[in-house]
Design brief:
The protein has one domain. The protein starts with 21 loop residues before the first strand and ends with a helix. It has 46 residues and is of the alpha+beta class. The structure holds zinc ion. Zinc ion (ZN) binds next to β2 and α1.
Length: 46
């Protein structure tokens, strides 16, 4: 199952343990790159 980033629409990567590389805000996902780029703003962007 591949979730997509709500901001850039790229697929969210997962680690070998199945943990997402990024963050989940409510039901939306944000990739690690966007999280780094936008930091706290991601909460307003998703
Ligand atoms: Zn993204």
């Amino acid at each position: 199952m591949a979730e997509k980033c709500s901001i850039c629409n790229n697929k969210i990567k997962t680690t070998f343990l199945g943990k997402i590389v990024g963050t989940k805000i409510g039901k939306k996902y944000v990739c690690n790159e966007c999280q780094k780029k936008y930091k706290d703003k991601v909460k307003e962007m998703v």
